[in-house]
């Protein structure tokens, strides 16, 4: 119990203070840290307590142990409590590792191993070893029944670990760090307890430990498990993984990792398989992961943020007063503009809530994130894609939400459209996108975010963008900002009243409550009124009890902070802090914990690393990303200080030298899947500063190894793909320089391959223009190599390059150029196929024919396309004779579907149907195979295409079944947000099924299908992020209009036809869009009929006029086929309307023209022409003459009508089609009987024939 120094009463401890509680009049209250300084430090009593120390060990000169135990004593003397904690951990590690390693050494030097011995050696090599794993291996060592003092040592230390729960204690205590260490009575007693355990162990085992100096044990310490450096320091074996041996030098607190052939040989002889999973390879992975997660949850919390209400009010007012907007916030350096952005950012601190608004932020720095590629990648994958979103939006622009375009205006528009879409997906009214730190963009950078900053005109409603920057800017950035018309700007300086008020609140709240104004001014002067320093002052006051009057100037605050940390750690352990700061301050992009561990020569995230990060958290920014938690330097001032500090720079140079030595080692297998290795390789040339390092990176074996590793990168991993681009680019620069050096012996095949593979990678990232440039360079080099007879060149690579370039050209819409490339690829492959001396994969040739066939089909060359597809079948049949050759079934199914499309376009529906059958058969097998990825949208498209084929052959029921299957699959896909398919295909399926239903006499079902098709298309039409062909929507309106008309729903059909015409008028303004004029004419005619049915004869007449006008133009066009019977029908309809409008002259003229057309069609024996239509026209004109009292002409037309009807009835009777004959009779007998009754018919022979028919 602590005593009050004033009255001797009891002292109560709270979060920050000790205060007297025994005497109300005493009023004693003091900062905890200051109290501990003033009173005797607990470590002073600890060092004096003889019961806690075994001092005879100091003079024994026992290897490792006596020196480390003496260091522990010195740390206690210097009151370095956290250093003591780490040293105690090290000593326990040594005490359990040393006898275990000696046992392993005794086994290793034997010529053969027993099963138990092999098991022990395997356990030490098969994964990364934690303290818990070492304890487990030590227990296994007891099974060997070693008859020497080591057995007693093992038995005793294992018991110590068990009784003292040493492993659990290490896990719970080490990861918190020195600054969060609360030296409570419990902590003090815990340290003393561990000292007592060590003292007791040394007392009981000193005789065994001293034996380590004997020759037999010295010999064992010469084995591969121990390594001595030039200073005679012993480096313990620590673990083995991924071909490298990790060692620890307890003397200096450092770790190293390198390839050691003896351990590689031992691993191979024991048939050890290394885990490829980072967490699986790390012992205590689950425990460590939980600790990491908990730590980051705490680090993401910012409990000391003082909301700048004046900035929040400014922003909210602007957003309330405007439907959209561009805002600019400028503040002087270090005043908290980035922290304000993070407070708004819903993926960061989320301290400030903006109602009904999705908030995202992008943070620029001058190292990497100012680059346009980085911006597009992070915005697409990290900022806006936090949860699973509508895949249609993500795939609108292949590979990246913001395209890599030469037109910066287009990019700005694409960005704002994308923001608008994500706002809708998240269901928010607004989106606020923050681009923080424009001032960080280097002046010399040509392509940067500056190039795609949008204007107010680019913004859709509900989209707001906030830019932040310092007040003082470069001329280039200032000029750019001056060109933007901002909705509002706000500039904040250090002497502004609002900023002063906010910093005063922060200082009083988080540093000291009872500060007078003079002291406040002093703190702000010392910190230069910048939050970056104010926050460090707060930490120093909290952790070391720094007095206000002792606060140094701003440029010394970071130094003081680190000095305080060093005092707590001690020189040995502070080296690790320096290494950590070196890695993070010099990084080229934010790093994950695993990547930091890799850079620090550790395969796993150690508990010590967590402690180091915890103690330097004030220097770091912690962000959530699609890669997990990432770490970077919080502020430019901190970065500037660290990168000028000699100890930090020396540490980074040493780290880099070890990393380069390892990664360029000929025995090292480069693996870009390893966290950290891909980062290092993508920036290793940026890090390399000296000639020796650069020479190692130019080593041809190293270059070849890197190129090999790049080919194994998964195409779905965008992070690795982006890093691969950087690596390829660096290798290409080096190889181009080497290519100019006659003594370099560079194989130019490497250079060509690098260009081609970078092209493939760019293609995977959705950068076809860059890919095209790479393929151009690859082909250029390969064509030179092809002519050089002095070197070996594989021509199949040139063929692949042409094929790749063809695919890219096709994706860019350059189909003619693609066709040329496919021609070249096929030409080369055909030559290779004939050469029996080389191995040639004929499947590549088949794919080339497929690609060329697709290109020919696209260019309107169906005959050539079919010839290419036939060649594919020929190759496949040859391949099937060889059992070892496998033809990709996905590719084969798509081939059959494409050939079916070509056959359909050539008017070969039966052949098309056979192809669709084959495609569906293969796809249905693939669908059941869970071992492969199968895109079910292709199966839906195959059913859709086959349905169209069945319909064209009049197989309406089969067509309907196929459309049902296509719709069923697409509806399932539509519910799965992880799968992308083009919804226009679903709309087409509904429309096609509607047509089939209509043809089957199911107008109600047809109408429902047209409704669904139109519903989907109207949603797509409103989506500005995709290209939608409105001609599909027009066609759907036309078909629904027909269906409504067939059900006598003329008002609805009128609306549909009008919508069709409105779209056509819009499309007519675009020369690039062609719509069938025959359909346009029919819609005008059908709308005329709807208007007539709704008793709107004037409007009907206008529609018929328009229909006839278009049809007469079509009639004269010899390049197209035109059905003249439709023109005749239009004349009949217009005649009926002229009758209603009492225009007899025009009415008769229309009947004459209709009859003339139908008579000609009858004379021409047109197969499709129905003479019933001609008969109907005669009766219509006969009725007209009857109304005009022209008996002669009336009777002539009635006779013509009557003769045709009688002729048709007898024709069908005699042909055996009695049903059709009766149908014609029933349709016309009332008119004929009326004519007979009124003596209007003259052909007596036909009259007698008719009467005979009537009697029958």
Give an overview of the whole structure.
Helix content is 62%, strand content 6%. α36 packs parallel to α38 and α47 runs antiparallel to α48. The protein is α/β, with parallel strands linked by helices. It folds into nine domains: 33 residues, no CATH class; 241 residues, no CATH class; 197 residues, Rossmann fold; 118 residues; 75 residues, Tetratricopeptide repeat domain (Serine Threonine Protein Phosphatase 5, Tetratricopeptide repeat, Alpha Horseshoe), CATH 1.25.40.10; 89 residues, Alpha Horseshoe (Serine Threonine Protein Phosphatase 5, Tetratricopeptide repeat), CATH 1.25.40; 70 residues, Methane Monooxygenase Hydroxylase, Chain G, domain 1 (Up-down Bundle), CATH 1.20.58; 85 residues, Tetratricopeptide repeat domain (Serine Threonine Protein Phosphatase 5, Tetratricopeptide repeat); and more. This is Nephrocystin 3-like N-terminal domain-containing protein. Keywords: Repeat, TPR repeat.
What distinguishing features does this structure have?
single chain, about 1250 residues, alpha/beta, Rossmann fold, 9 domains, five-stranded parallel β-sheet, four-stranded antiparallel β-sheet, 53 helices, about 60% helix, elongated, Ycf3, TPR_rpt, Nephrocystin 3-like N-terminal domain-containing protein, NPHP3-like_N
């Amino acid at each position: 119990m602590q005593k009050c120094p004033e009255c001797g009463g009891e002292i109560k401890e709270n979060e920050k203070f000790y205060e007297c509680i025994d005497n109300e009049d005493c009023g004693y209250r003091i900062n905890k840290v200051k109290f501990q300084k003033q009173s005797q430090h607990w470590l002073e009593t600890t060092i004096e307590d003889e019961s806690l120390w075994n001092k005879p060990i100091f003079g024994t000169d026992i290897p490792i142990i006596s020196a480390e135990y003496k260091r522990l004593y010195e740390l206690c003397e210097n009151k370095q409590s956290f250093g003591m904690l780490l040293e105690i951990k090290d000593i326990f590690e040594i005490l359990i590792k040393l006898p275990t390693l000696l046992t392993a050494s005794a086994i290793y030097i034997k010529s053969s191993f027993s099963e138990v011995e092999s098991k022990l050696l395997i356990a030490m090599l098969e994964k990364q070893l934690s303290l818990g794993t070492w304890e487990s291996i030590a227990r296994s060592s007891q099974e060997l029944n070693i008859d020497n003092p080591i057995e007693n040592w093992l038995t005793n230390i294992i018991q110590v670990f068990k009784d003292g729960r040493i492993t659990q204690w290490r896990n719970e205590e080490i990861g918190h760090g020195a600054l969060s260490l609360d030296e409570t009575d419990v902590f003090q007693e815990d340290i003393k307890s561990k000292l007592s355990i060590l003292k007791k162990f040394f007392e009981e085992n000193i005789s065994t430990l001293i034996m380590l100096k004997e020759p037999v044990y010295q010999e064992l310490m010469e084995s591969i498990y121990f390594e001595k450096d030039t200073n005679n320091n012993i480096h313990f074996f620590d673990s083995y993984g991924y071909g490298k041996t990790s060692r620890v030098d307890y003397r200096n607190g450092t770790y190293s990792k390198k390839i050691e052939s003896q351990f590689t040989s031992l691993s191979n002889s024991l048939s050890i398989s290394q885990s490829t999973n980072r967490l699986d390879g790390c012992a205590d992975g689950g425990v460590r992961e939980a600790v990491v997660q908990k730590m980051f949850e705490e680090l993401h919390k910012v409990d000391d943020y003082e909301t700048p209400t004046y900035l929040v009010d400014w922003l909210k007012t602007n957003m309330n007063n405007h439907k959209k907007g561009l805002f600019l916030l400028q503040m002087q350096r270090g005043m908290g503009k980035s922290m304000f952005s993070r407070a708004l950012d819903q993926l960061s601190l989320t301290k400030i809530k903006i109602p009904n608004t999705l908030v995202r932020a992008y943070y620029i720095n001058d190292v990497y994130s100012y680059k346009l590629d980085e911006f597009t990648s992070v915005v697409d994958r990290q900022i806006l894609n936090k949860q699973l979103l509508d895949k249609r939006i993500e795939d609108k622009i292949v590979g990246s939400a913001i395209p890599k375009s030469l037109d910066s205006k287009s990019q700005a528009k694409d960005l704002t459209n994308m923001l608008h879409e994500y706002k809708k997906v998240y269901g928010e009214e607004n989106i606020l996108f923050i681009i923080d730190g424009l001032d960080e963009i280097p002046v010399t950078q040509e392509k940067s975010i500056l190039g795609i900053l949008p204007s107010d005109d680019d913004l859709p409603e509900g989209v707001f963008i906030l830019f932040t920057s310092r007040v003082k800017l470069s001329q280039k950035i200032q000029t750019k900002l001056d060109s933007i018309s901002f909705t509002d700007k706000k500039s904040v300086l250090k002497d502004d009243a609002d900023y002063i008020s906010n910093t005063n609140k922060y200082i009083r709240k988080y540093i000291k409550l009872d500060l007078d104004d003079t002291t406040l001014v002093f703190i702000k002067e010392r910190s230069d009124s910048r939050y970056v320093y104010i926050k460090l002052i707060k930490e120093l006051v909290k952790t070391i009890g720094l007095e206000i009057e002792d606060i140094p100037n701003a440029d010394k605050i970071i130094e003081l902070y680190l000095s305080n940390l060093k005092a707590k750690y001690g020189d040995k352990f502070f080296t690790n802090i320096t290494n950590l700061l070196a890695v993070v301050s010099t990084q080229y992009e934010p790093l994950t914990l695993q990547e930091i561990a890799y850079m620090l020569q550790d395969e796993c995230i150690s508990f010590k690393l967590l402690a180091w990060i915890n103690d330097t958290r004030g220097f770091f920014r912690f962000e959530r990303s699609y890669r997990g938690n990432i770490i970077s330097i919080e502020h430019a001032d901190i970065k500037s200080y660290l990168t000028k500090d000699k100890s930090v720079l020396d540490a980074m140079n040493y780290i880099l030298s070890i990393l380069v030595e390892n990664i360029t080692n000929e025995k090292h297998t480069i693996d870009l899947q390893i966290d950290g290795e891909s980062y290092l390789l993508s920036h290793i040339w940026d890090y390399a500063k000296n000639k020796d390092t650069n020479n190692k990176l130019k080593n041809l074996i190293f270059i070849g190894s890197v190129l090999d590793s790049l080919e194994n990168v998964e195409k779905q991993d965008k992070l690795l793909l982006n890093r691969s681009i950087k690596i390829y680019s660096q290798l290409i620069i080096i190889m181009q320089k080497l290519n100019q050096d006659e003594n370099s012996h560079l194989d130019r095949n490497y250079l060509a391959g690098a260009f081609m593979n970078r092209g493939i990678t760019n293609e995977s990232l959705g950068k076809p223009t860059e890919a095209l440039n790479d393929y151009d360079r690859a082909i250029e080099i390969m064509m030179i190599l092809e002519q050089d007879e002095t070197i070996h060149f594989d021509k199949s690579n040139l063929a692949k390059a042409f094929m790749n370039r063809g695919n890219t050209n096709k994706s860019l819409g350059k189909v003619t150029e693609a066709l040329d490339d496919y021609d070249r690829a096929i030409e080369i492959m055909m030559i290779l196929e004939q050469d029996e001396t080389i191995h040639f994969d004929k499947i590549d040739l088949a794919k080339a024919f497929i690609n060329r066939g697709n290109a020919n089909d696209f260019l309107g060359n169906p005959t050539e396309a079919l010839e290419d597809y036939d060649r594919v079948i020929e190759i496949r049949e040859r391949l099937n004779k060889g059992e070892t050759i496998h033809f990709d079934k996905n590719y084969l199914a798509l081939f059959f579907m494409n050939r079916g499309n070509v056959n359909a376009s050539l008017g070969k529906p039966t052949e098309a149907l056979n192809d669709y059958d084959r495609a569906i058969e293969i796809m249905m097998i693939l669908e059941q195979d869970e071992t492969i990825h199968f895109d079910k949208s292709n199966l839906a498209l195959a059913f859709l295409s086959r349905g169209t084929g069945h319909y064209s052959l009049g197989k309406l029921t089969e067509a309907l079944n196929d459309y049902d299957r296509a719709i069923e699959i697409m509806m399932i896909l539509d519910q799965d947000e992880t799968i992308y398919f083009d919804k226009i295909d679903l709309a087409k399926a509904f429309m096609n099924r509607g047509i089939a239903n209509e043809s089957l006499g199911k107008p109600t079902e047809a109408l429902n299908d047209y409704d669904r098709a139109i519903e989907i298309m109207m949603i797509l039409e409103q989506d500005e992020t995709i290209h939608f062909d409105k001609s599909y929507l027009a066609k759907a309106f036309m078909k629904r209009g027909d269906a409504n008309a067939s059900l006598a729903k003329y008002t609805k059909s009128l609306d549909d036809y009008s919508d069709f015409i409105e779209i056509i008028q819009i499309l007519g303004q675009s020369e690039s869009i062609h719509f069938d004029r025959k359909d346009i004419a029919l819609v005008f005619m059908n709308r005329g009929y709807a208007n007539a049915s709704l008793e709107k004869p004037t409007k009907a007449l206008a529609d018929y006029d328009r229909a006839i006008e278009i049809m007469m133009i079509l009639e004269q066009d010899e390049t197209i086929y035109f059905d003249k019977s439709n023109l005749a029908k239009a004349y009949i309809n217009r005649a009926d309307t002229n009758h209603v409008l009492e225009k007899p002259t025009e009415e008769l003229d229309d009947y004459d023209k209709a009859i003339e057309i139908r008579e000609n069609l009858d004379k021409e024996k047109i197969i499709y022409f129905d003479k019933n239509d001609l008969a109907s026209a005669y009766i219509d004109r006969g009725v007209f003459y009857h109304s005009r009292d022209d008996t002669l002409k009336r009777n002539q037309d009635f006779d013509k009508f009557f003769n045709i009807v009688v002729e048709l009835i007898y024709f069908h009777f005699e042909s055996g089609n009695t049903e059709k004959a009766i149908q014609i009779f029933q349709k016309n007998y009332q008119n004929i009987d009326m004519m007979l009754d009124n003596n209007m018919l003259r052909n007596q022979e036909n009259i007698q024939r008719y009467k005979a028919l009537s009697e029958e």
